[in-house]
Amino acid sequence: MKFFIDTANLDQIKDAQELGILDGVTTNPSLMAKEGITGKNNILKHYVDICNIVEGDVSAEVIATDLQGMIREGEALADLHPQIVVKVPMIRDGVKALKYFADKGIRTNCTLVFSPGQALLAAKAGATYVSPFIGRLDDVSSNGVHLISEIRHIYDNYGYETQILAASIRHTMHIIDCAKVGADVMTGPLSAIEGLLKHPLTDIGLEKFLADYNKGN
Ligand code: G3P
């Protein structure tokens, strides 16, 4: 399973990178705004700063919602850095843009996916990644992890190579549950990733080992 961090915060990206388990970064306009990164030029520069920290894929989102606008913005984003993956919303023109980018060899991440049908369309259009938002489904009493398993089933039926990127992960159990049902990638906050580290028996065991070692010294 690939681990992406879902933030535009450079310190958190560095922390995750230093942990040695980071495979990429996802961002969106809301995450950029949260870090105070606004204005086209600042946002573009921030993408390059992120690419210079991590070794893996960095998703950068188009703002346009019409085909020509998405193509223009997506090509400019892809030109920024080889690690950039163009993030395209699951709308009618977005599907056309995914197909256009696939034909041009530009990698994409289809975002704002909430149903198996949307994921099927994204795969048919040649998306590199599909991003079902599992936390937001849980927020409205739908089972986000179940959507991941449905998409896995459909993609495996036909051998689609689009990678399932479980997004809107909120906590550690989301990561475990997505791993169980076969998500290819998860993207979430640093806190959810670090939660995987923790177990009280590890802390108690280590304390005992060190205490016993020190008895002889
Ligand atoms: O990766 C998608 C993500 O940024 C949305 O997360 O927590 O705002 O639903 P959230």
Question: What layout of secondary structure does this protein have?
Answer:
Elements (H helix, E strand, L loop, with lengths): L1 E5 L3 H10 L4 E3 L2 H6 L5 H12 L5 E5 L5 H14 L3 E6 L2 H13 L3 E6 L2 H9 L4 E4 L1 H6 L4 H15 L4 E4 L5 H9 L4 E4 L1 H6 L4 H16 L2
Parallel strand pairs: 1-2, 1-8, 2-3, 3-4, 4-5, 5-6, 6-7, 7-8
Helix pairs in contact: 4-5, 6-8
Bound molecules: SN-glycerol-3-phosphate.
- Please give the order of strands in the largest beta sheet: 1-2-3-4-5-6-7-8
Quaternary form: single chain
Order of helices and strands: EHEHHEHEHEHEHHEHEHH
Structural class: alpha/beta
In DSSP terms (H or I, runs of 4 or more residues), the helix count works out at 11
